[in-house]
Amino acid sequence: MPLADDSSDESSQSDSVSEADDADLRSTTSLEEMSRLTANMLLYKAARARNVAVMLEALSQFADINWKNDDDSGRTPLMQAIFSVCMLRHVLLSV
């Protein structure tokens, strides 16, 4: 009896991650939204989306790396980035 092809499992995992990433990127990189955000909030949202280019843009606008988002339990951009990676790992392991 032939072994099952694991490539479909890898494909479904990457699709799930890709969909989650796409949603995060769309919510963070919209030009209209970016123009309305402070540098601190831009850094925070880009960290959540793991979007290095936008994080660099926010830092070039003097975003405070220690800024706390009072609307999200006082999380900093670094905390949000770590949380985002943990959520990505959870998605990968649950599929």
Task: Lay out the secondary structure.
Elements: H1 7-29, H2 31-36, H3 39-48, H4 52-60, H5 77-94
Helix pairs in contact: 1-3, 3-4, 3-5
Short description:
With 95 residues, the chain is mainly alpha-helical. It has helices at 7-29, 31-36, 39-48, 52-60, 77-94. Helices cover 69% and strands 0% of the residues.
Give a structural overview.
The protein is mostly helical and 95 residues long. It has one domain: Serine Threonine Protein Phosphatase 5, Tetratricopeptide repeat, CATH 1.25.40. The chain has helices at 7-29, 31-36, 39-48, 52-60, 77-94. Helix 1 (7-29) packs antiparallel against helix 3 (39-48), helix 3 (39-48) packs antiparallel against helix 4 and helix 3 runs parallel beside helix 5. The longest helix has 23 residues, at 7-29. The chain is globular. The two termini are 25 Å apart.
Task: Tell me the major beta sheet.
Answer: none
What sort of overall outline do the alpha carbons produce when their principal axes are compared? globular
What's the CATH architecture?
Alpha Horseshoe
Number of helices: 5
Task: Please state roughly what percent of the residues sit in beta strands, choosing from under 5%, 5-15%, 15-25%, 25-35%, 35-45% or over 45%.
Answer: under 5%
Low-confidence stretches: 1-18
CATH topology: Serine Threonine Protein Phosphatase 5, Tetratricopeptide repeat
Could you state the order of secondary-structure elements as H and E? Answer: HHHHH
Number of domains: 1
Radius of gyration, whole Å:
16 Å
How much helicity do the residues have? 55-70%
The count of DSSP E runs of length 2 or more, i.e. the number of strands, is: 0
Main structural class:
mainly alpha
Distance between termini? Answer: 25 Å
CATH level 1 name: Mainly Alpha
> Averaging pLDDT over every residue, what do you get?
76
